[in-house]
Design brief:
Largest sheet: 6 strands, mixed
Helix content: 25-40%
Structural class: alpha/beta
CATH superfamily of the largest domain: von Willebrand factor, type A domain
Strand content: 25-35%
Oligomer: single chain
Number of strands: 19
Order of helices and strands: EHHEEEEEEEEEEEHEEHEEHHEHEHEH
CATH topology of the largest domain: Rossmann fold
Distance between the termini: 72 Å
Amino acid sequence: MKATGRAYSLMTVAWVIVIMSYLLVRWEGIALTLPILTIFLLSSLLFKPTIDIEVSREISSSRVIEGQKVTVKLRIKAKSKVISLYIQDLTPNSVEIIGRNFAVFSFNSGDEREIKYEIKVPRGYHKFEGVRVVYRDPLGLFEEDKVIDLYDEVIGVPQIEDIITPYTTKGTKITIGHLPSPRLGEGLEFHAIREYQPGDPIKIINWKATAKLGKIMVNEFESERKVDVVVIIDATYKGQSVFDYMMRAASSVLLDALENGMSFGILISEAVPLMINVDYGKRHFFRCIDALSMAKPDKNNLIFYQVEHLSKTKIPPRAQIVFISPFLTKESEEALIALYTRGYRVVAISPDPYSTYTPQTKEENLAIKLLSLKRKARLKKMRKYAVIIDWNLKKSLRSAIMEVIK
């Protein structure tokens, strides 16, 4: 129980009367404080400090595509009579509230009330932590303010666009048995003969070549549906304005790989890099999407060192790399060159951070032109290391890919 602003105001008035009565030696003035003291007495008698209610929350969907609306219903049931109870749902600050997430109710024992509103969910992880309940006595002098723990979460996943595959789907990889794709076993072609390595199946041994060369040789195959795809996202804070676009591009590339029956993984270059190893299937796809949903720009730009290390330990040899970055830093350029140096095929998708900005003055317009020219010069330099898709964000990603991949 604590005093309200009104209570402090009345107490201030009472003290002023007492002090003035003392200074003027007019003790009858003390009688003027009796009504104030009576009000405090009545308020303390009428005040009910125990808030005996049950609260539950219902969310129409816990996982939605970014930008969509979700309906939230907060149900309150009183176990005793309560007069003038303020209730507010502690909605995450990261979402847009449509309607009112608070109300003032009076309850009799057993009464139920409901607060209904909507939220517009951006990409990311959004957590409801509780419900705020405030009870104030009828005279407004004392109140009890507490939070009832009530945990829920909503995840906004990136928007996914239907794109064309921006790379060849052929990959040199040993393939045994059925391929995990819609057309099982198709597209399997002989690629080369190489020396046996521990773990290779016996059925792929080329006995004729083994007898001729005097050492165990195996067949290596090329499959149109078996290339490993690794999507690398540059999480630099300098690309914060286009970060959501990068997540959408990554999600679209992963869905395309899933539909083509290819294995895929992701690397998000945060301060602590998040690497999800290459795998197949819908369950793996949704795991990657959850990671993309919760990714945030990072102030520690260590992408070059992360790529250099993980390309030696985690990223499969001969994998197809899809590198997503606005290329605003020297580190991102060096990371792409490092991948090329290690023999990876790279397609770079670069959302243009200046394509959606509208300058307000001539100075801003000139600054944007200079920054755009600097970025385009960097992209031109990198075209000898990768296929560069310069994505004007006023257009769809599919259109940007089609302009390059014809």
